[in-house]
């Protein structure tokens, strides 16, 4: 009976840890694409974004990404600094978060259309975001030591 209960605790622990591993640490390339209003999009209406991008502070972008040259490193670093805290919302293609954010970026920064989409690409998954939360606290990621300690606790509990 004790072994069966301990095994169930281990399984619950494993799925809890796996849940933390699924958090997003990138901004997908799909967030950069323009999703027009043609054809079937009326049937696929997007939900309104829960983030208020209208009242965000865009000075991080407008101070580091200036024309007419628009330096790629400065612009992309500023975009990541601004957008990475909202990566989960921007990657949710069922909402209009990405298009709303880029509308306000272009409004406040007066950037040419597609500037960030053409300039800021890091890989097939999009921009890599640092592994920290906006408040500066580290994101909890399952690592081998966490799994080892859980296994050791289980072993000590069994014997």
TrEMBL record:
Record domain GPI-anchored protein LLG1-like: where: 52-127
Keyword Transmembrane belongs to the record: no
Organism: Durio zibethinus (Durian)
Identification of the protein by name: GPI-anchored protein LLG2-like
Signal peptide segment: 1-23
Any Pfam family matching the protein: LLG1
Gene (UniProt): LOC111308447
The keyword Amino-acid biosynthesis belongs to this UniProt entry's keyword annotation: no
Top-rank taxon, per record: Eukaryota
Keyword field: Signal
């Amino acid at each position: 009976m004790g072994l069966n209960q301990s095994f169930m605790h281990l399984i619950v622990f494993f799925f809890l840890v796996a849940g933390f591993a699924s958090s997003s640490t990138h901004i997908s390339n799909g967030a950069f694409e323009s999703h027009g209003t043609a054809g079937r999009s009326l049937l696929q209406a997007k939900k309104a974004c829960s983030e208020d991008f209208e009242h965000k502070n865009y000075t991080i972008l407008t101070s580091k990404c200036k024309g007419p040259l628009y330096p790629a490193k400065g612009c992309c670093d500023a975009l990541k600094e601004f957008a990475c805290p909202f990566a989960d919302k921007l990657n949710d293609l069922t909402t209009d978060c990405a298009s709303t954010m880029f509308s306000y970026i272009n409004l406040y920064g007066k950037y040419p259309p597609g500037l960030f989409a053409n300039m800021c690409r890091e890989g097939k998954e999009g921009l890599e975001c640092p592994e920290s939360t906006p408040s500066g606290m580290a994101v909890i990621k399952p690592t081998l030591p966490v799994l080892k300690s859980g296994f050791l606790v289980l072993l000590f509990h069994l014997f």
